[in-house]
Amino acid sequence: MRHDRIRVSWWSGLAMATGLIAGSVWAQPPEVSPGPSQACERTGLLHRWIHHSAHALQDKWIGYPENFIEPPLGYYVTEQMTMQVAKADPHRFTLYRSDFLPGTDRFSPTGASRFNLMYSRLGGWLGPVVIEWTPDEPGLAEARRQAVLVTMQMAGRPIIPERVVIGPSPYPGAMGAEAGNNFTTILTRSQQAGLAYPPTPQSAAYAYSTGGGQ
To answer: Going from the N-terminus, what domains does the chain have, and what CATH number goes with each?
Structure first.
């Protein structure tokens, strides 16, 4: 009996101690979870005005230091000339309809001159040689293409056939009614130029001496 009473009192003390520990844990106040960080607030109207004005002046008037880095001398001239050459190359290596005699595969005088110039520059050109197409006569453009290949073969600088292609002009010109009126005006002025202007300096001097310049 005595051992039973000791055992009961021991278990009772243990239960009481456990309850006190649990009660002390439960009695602790909960930790407050940290909220979002507070944003930086500008204080005062004057402070906000100065802050905004400084950024506006630098963006609209003063500028940024990286924008004032001077390129080497001649940079912009070289850039412009490179762009002009790049735009001129497609024209230099295109043979137009006017470079051939009408209805044939033979060069016109202007076309022969342009072909000789193109031939001398061909070593520095990696693009194609374009023969302007003739949609109304498809076989004519192909005949001109073959004639160009044969001419280059005979001149001692053969070119692979795939580099000579048929295509439209890179500069189609203007279109519409306004373009038609403009070209008509150009043709009319060209036809009347012989009557409006003397063909030789001697004729101009004669016209001036006979009273045209008084």
So the answer is: 78-167 (3.30.1330)
What is the model's pTM? 0.50
| Calpha distance 96→208 (Å, rounded) | 41
Q: Contacts for 102-105 with beta carbons within 8 Å, 24 or more apart?
A: 103/137, 103/140, 105/140, 105/143, 105/144, 105/146, 105/147
Q: Give the amino acid at 192.
A: Q
Closest Cα to residue 144, out of 174, 109, 103?
103
Angle of helix 109-121 versus helix 138-154 axis, rounded to 10: 60
| pLDDT tens, residue by residue, 144-196 | 999 999 999 998 888 899 999 999 988 777 777 777 788 888 888 888 876 76
What was the pLDDT predicted at 54?
81
